[in-house]
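yo, SAM-dependent methyltransferase is done. seq:
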Amino acid sequence: MDRQLISLLAHADHPIAAPVGPASLERLLARARLRPGARVLDLGCGQAAWTLRALELYPDVTADGVDVSPQALASAAGEAGARGLSGRIRLHETPAADFTPAEPYDLVLCVGAVHAFGGLGPALEAVRGFLRPEGLALVGDGFWDEEPTPQALTRLGAEPDEYADLPGTVRAVEDAGFRVVYGHTSERAEWDEYEWSWTGSLIRWALDNPGPDGEAALTAALEHRDMWLNGYRGILGFVTFLLRRTG
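structure:
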């Protein structure tokens, strides 16, 4: 079964597509304090939950969303239409690393999508290049909240240096030419809500759609749930930074 479709189905009940709750998302966007006429770019936007909420919070802002999933972009377009935002968002089906903007942005988002650039470091470099000199970025990625066990590393298919701890992650973003002006460290409840939604939405779809696709979806959900519950739960954290470009 297509991985992009599995992701879309898994995020049906949690379109934020990261272990971040709606209240935390709104607080992060509100801290951006975008000026009228600002331009927003969402790299790896998925269903564009972050961007659509930003457009509601800032009525004079326009945005571009970039993703490789046609299914997710179709969902984003439908949601934008339902919320009366279609005229203020442009959606681009292209790899985030290949996107070439016409002009820089006031706010660039890359939350849970740094893999599109090959990791946090390359993602920060790309984000910095998309920003105006005094622009802001919202970047979210994992960090080791506790030292990973061999079991967790095996289940994640990760190396010990795949992530830094939280202080190391802060150093990494500031070494990349930013200052952290705000941050949100996802709470255990946000992680659990995200993971139960991810696995549960996919399991429900699988039960409603018996057959090869349903079996594939069920297998993906159960493998993911095992990796979470018996691997990285309580070990892998998630932090979303509001960053100000420097230099």
